Recover the amino acids of this structure.
C-alpha cells in the first residue's frame, strides 16, 4: 500500500490548524509541518496533538522558502500539499487512499480537486468551478522555490469532483492591496534570479525556462503590465471564476508586470 505524506508550511495559524489537521487524521500516514519562524500562539501545541512531525525554521515570511525542505522530509510515495486554512471535505478524506491506489492502474501522477471557499461563520461551502492540484506521486513531482508556483508533475493530472475547502479571509480593499504589492515585489525579484540561485526539487534549468523564460524576456517591455492584466482577466473569466476574484488576480498580474519592469531596469 502506498504511503501518503501531507506537507504544510504555517505561521501562527491557531485559528485554522485544528480544522486542517483533523481533516487529515486517518487519511494520511504522515504530516510534515514547518513553522516559519518561532511560533507565537498555540499552533504547534495543537499540531503535536495530531502527531505531526514539526520543524521550526528561520522566519522568511514566504511559505515557498520552506517547501523544498518539507519535500525532502516527506517519506511518502504520494504527497499532499495543503495550507492551514484549507481542509479535506468528508468525501475527499474518505476517498483519498482509494484515489492513490487507483492511480497506478490508471497511469495518474496527480489529482486536482474543486477548490471552494468556506465561510466559517455559516459552516457553508460556496459553489465554485475553480480547481487546485494538491495530490502528487512523489517520483513524478518537481518544483522550484518560486513564489506562487504550484507543485508540478511530469505525469498525467486527473481532475476529480471531490472538494478541498478553503476558509474565506475577510480583508478590506486597502489591506488586500498592500499585501498584493508586497507579494508582487517578492515574486518579481525571484523571477529575475538565475536558476542556480533557487532551491529545487527534482527540477532542472529547462523546467525553470518553461515557466518563466517568456516573462523574463518581457520584463523591460513597458506594455507588459497592462497585457498581463488583460490576459489574466480573460483567463479567469473563461475558467468560470467570479468577476471579483478575476479582477483581483488580474490586478496582481499587473503589479507583477510593473515590478518586473522596474527591477529589470535597475539591473
Amino acid at each position: 500500500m502506498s504511503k501518503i505524506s501531507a506537507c504544510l508550511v504555517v505561521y501562527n495559524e491557531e485559528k485554522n490548524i485544528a480544522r486542517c489537521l483533523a481533516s487529515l487524521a486517518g487519511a494520511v500516514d504522515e504530516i510534515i509541518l514547518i513553522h516559519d519562524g518561532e511560533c507565537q500562539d498555540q499552533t504547534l501545541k495543537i499540531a503535536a496533538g495530531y502527531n505531526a512531525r514539526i520543524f521550526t525554521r528561520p522566519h522568511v515570511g514566504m511559505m515557498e522558502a520552506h517547501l523544498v525542505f518539507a519535500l525532502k522530509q516527506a517519506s511518502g510515495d504520494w504527497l499532499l500539499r495543503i495550507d492551514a486554512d484549507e481542509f479535506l471535505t468528508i468525501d475527499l478524506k474518505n476517498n483519498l487512499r482509494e484515489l492513490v491506489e487507483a492511480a497506478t492502474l490508471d497511469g495518474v501522477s496527480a489529482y486536482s480537486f474543486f477548490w471552494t471557499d468556506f465561510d466559517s461563520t455559516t459552516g457553508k461551502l460556496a459553489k465554485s468551478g475553480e480547481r487546485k492540484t494538491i495530490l502528487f506521486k512523489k517520483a513524478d513531482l518537481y518544483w522550484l522555490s518560486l513564489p506562487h508556483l504550484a507543485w508540478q508533475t511530469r505525469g498525467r493530472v486527473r481532475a476529480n469532483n471531490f472538494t478541498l475547502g478553503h476558509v474565506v479571509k475577510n480583508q478590506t480593499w486597502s489591506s488586500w492591496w498592500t499585501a498584493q504589492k508586497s507579494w508582487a515585489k517578492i515574486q518579481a525579484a525571484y523571477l529575475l534570479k538565475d536558476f542556480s540561485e533557487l532551491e529545487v526539487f527534482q527540477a532542472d534549468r529547462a523546467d525553470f525556462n518553461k515557466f518563466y523564460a517568456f516573462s523574463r524576456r518581457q520584463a523591460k517591455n513597458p506594455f507588459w503590465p497592462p497585457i498581463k492584466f488583460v490576459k489574466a482577466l480573460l483567463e479567469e473569466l473563461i475558467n468560470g471564476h467570479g468577476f471579483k476574484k478575476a479582477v483581483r488576480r488580474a490586478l496582481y498580474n499587473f503589479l507583477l508586470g510593473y515590478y518586473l519592469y522596474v527591477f529589470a531596469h535597475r539591473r
The mean pLDDT is 93. DSSP finds eight helices and twelve strands in the chain.
